[in-house]
Design brief:
Layout: H1 2-43, H2 50-56, H3 75-89, H4 99-111, H5 119-129, H6 137-150, H7 156-161, H8 172-184, H9 188-197, H10 207-219, H11 223-237, H12 243-255, H13 259-271, H14 278-290, H15 294-306, H16 313-325, H17 329-341
């Protein structure tokens, strides 16, 4: 039986190799055919056909990039052609039809185009405005292209301003995606520079800009920088921090055992009439208890209840017990009375 199996394997192996070779040759042929088809559409300026061409050749689109032939064009012509392609995609409906085309254009401009920016930023902008979502690899390609440009000692605003040279203008969505990409590859300092340089390029940072940076700061426990950014959002820009962002900052401060700074954050937001949610209060109270700041915990709880928030039952018991154990009977009774008034 073993001899028969061995013979069968030796018989099937060449057939399997032939099938793999055929599939490979067929894929290369299809890919080459796709590039030629797309190239013909470009030369005929029939750009509106490109989205459907890519869908029909979906299995052949992997490698090489169907727009790779554009690398042979002079810079000015390449930019003109890409711009014409992008403009032709605007009326495409449903918009997701152009998803693959945008993805391959982004991949091409960020990897093969020289220089990759500002053309890559223009393609990214049109992709986002169309409602299409760039593939995950885009964040890595974009951050790499951006950092390479910055190595040439070019300022953030200068790179963004270059979009105007090809008829585009930087906007918050494009810059926010860039900030997110940089944070995603642990380039937080560069993301902060982009945030600060946006204004000089005529693009005002929005809530998403600050939120992305603050959350990235919290992930690496850069609490001082996160607090400064929150204060800048509120005092200089007039933005209301998201509750989820405040929670992230409070959690990072608790993890760093910087509970007094967490209390200061809550007090700062309250003075400015910005809302602080239950989860943020809960983290601060628990942080106080973790650090043995029992009196501070009692005071935070009193402020918390004034907003209509009642701590979890275990936290309530801990606060009262700790205050009583520390001989702070007056505050303990006040906290207990407050809970009773709220029917807790």
């Amino acid at each position: 039986m073993a001899i028969v199996s061995a013979k069968l394997c030796r018989t099937l192996l060449p057939l399997h190799c032939c099938l793999l070779k055929y599939h490979s040759i067929n894929s290369i042929s299809a890919s080459h055919s796709l590039q030629e088809t797309v190239k013909n559409a470009v030369e005929a300026k029939a750009y509106e056909k490109i989205p459907d061409l890519l869908v029909s050749f979906e299995q052949a689109c992997q490698n090489p990039n169907p727009f790779a032939f554009l690398s042979t064009f002079p810079d000015s012509l390449r930019m003109q052609v890409v711009d014409e392609i992008l403009q032709s995609f605007i009326p495409v409906r449903p918009r997701f039809r152009a998803q693959a085309a945008y993805a391959y254009l982004l991949s091409f401009t960020l990897q093969s185009s020289n220089p990759p920016l500002p053309l890559g930023l223009a393609v990214l902008q049109r992709t986002l405005r169309s409602g299409c979502v760039p593939v995950a690899q885009t964040r890595l390609l974009l951050s790499s292209a951006w950092l390479n440009c910055r190595k040439e000692s070019r300022s953030v605003s200068d790179i963004l301003f270059e979009m105007q040279s090809i008829g585009y203008h930087p906007d918050s969505s494009t810059c926010n995606y860039l900030i997110w990409s940089l944070c995603d590859v642990d380039q937080l300092n560069e993301a902060v520079k982009v945030l600060k340089g946006m204004c000089r390029a005529g693009c005002v940072p929005d809530l998403e800009s600050f939120d992305t940076v603050v959350r990235a700061m919290c992930r690496v426990r850069k609490t001082s920088e996160a607090l400064d950014m929150i204060k800048k959002m509120v005092e200089k820009v007039g933005l209301t921090p998201r509750q989820g962002t405040i929670v992230k900052v409070a959690a990072a401060l608790r993890a760093n055992r910087e509970i007094w700074r967490a209390v200061e954050l809550v007090e700062f937001l309250e003075r400015k009439d910005y809302p602080v949610g239950f989860e943020s209060y809960d983290l601060v109270v628990k942080g106080c208890l973790d650090s043995g700041e029992n009196i501070l915990a009692g005071k935070v709880v009193m402020g918390m209840t004034e907003k209509g928030f009642i701590p979890y039952i275990r936290t309530r018991h801990k606060v009262v017990d700790r205050l009583a154990g520390a001989g702070e009977w007056k505050l303990a009774n006040a906290v207990r009375q407050r809970f009773a008034e709220l029917r807790s």
